[in-house]
Amino acid sequence: MPPAPDAFPAIDPGARCPCLSGSVFAECCGPFLAGAADAPTAPQLMRSRYTAFVAGDDRYLLATWHPSTRPERLELDPTMRWYRLDLERVERGGPLDPTGVVEFTARYRVGGERSERGEQHEVSRFVREHGRWFYVDAIG
């Protein structure tokens, strides 16, 4: 049975991760969203944040947003279904880098039967502080 239009879909731990890494959720973004680990690179943080949008996990999105640019709260739209993430460019953002940039396109559908398709293209900046990566903002 599909999820109610006003609910975010649950992600099966054994299913392919929504970030399209090719790994299963329990071995990819699942541990990050559960708080069991921190993303080791900026691209992995980008993937896990995308997965948090899929799951409607505003708690994780806020926790991984740098305090200098983080909003007080997020209101995610449960009718928006994210279905594809393409990482297009990565600059730095490795385990030992202090900063990173990830350019991506995320595709979504909004609405029910006659859903409209859209995409979000963004160049995101990330910073690593005390060994932990944070999303800072979008540039350009």
Q: What report would you give on this structure?
A:
This protein is of the alpha+beta class and 140 residues long. The protein has one domain: Nuclear Transport Factor 2, Chain: A, CATH 3.10.450. 17% of the residues lie in helices and 34% in strands. The protein has 3 helices and 4 strands, in the order αααββββ. The longest helix is centred in the middle third of the chain and has 14 residues, at 42-55. The protein is globular, with a radius of gyration of 15 Å. InterPro entries: NTF2-like_dom_sf, SEC_C_motif, YchJ-like, YchJ-like_M. This is UPF0225 protein ESP51_13900. Belongs to the UPF0225 family. Residues 41-138 form the YchJ-like middle NTF2-like domain.
Seen as an oligomer or otherwise, the chain set is: single chain
- Helical content class: 10-25%
The number of distinct helices, counting runs of at least 4 residues, comes to 3
Q: Give the CA-CA distance, first to last residue.
A: 41 Å
Mean pLDDT: 94
Listing every helix as H and every strand as E from the N terminus to the C terminus, the arrangement reads HHHEEEE
How are the strands of the largest sheet arranged? 1-2-3-4
Highest CATH level, the class:
Alpha Beta
**Strand-residue proportion:** 25-35%
Largest sheet: 4 strands, antiparallel
Uncertain regions spanning at least 5 consecutive residues = none
**Rg over CA atoms:** 15 Å
- At CATH level 3, the topology is Nuclear Transport Factor 2, Chain: A
Which CATH architecture is right? Answer: Roll
The coarse silhouette is globular
Q: Work out the number of β strands.
A: 4
Domains (count): 1
User: Which class of secondary structure composition applies to the elements?
Assistant: alpha+beta
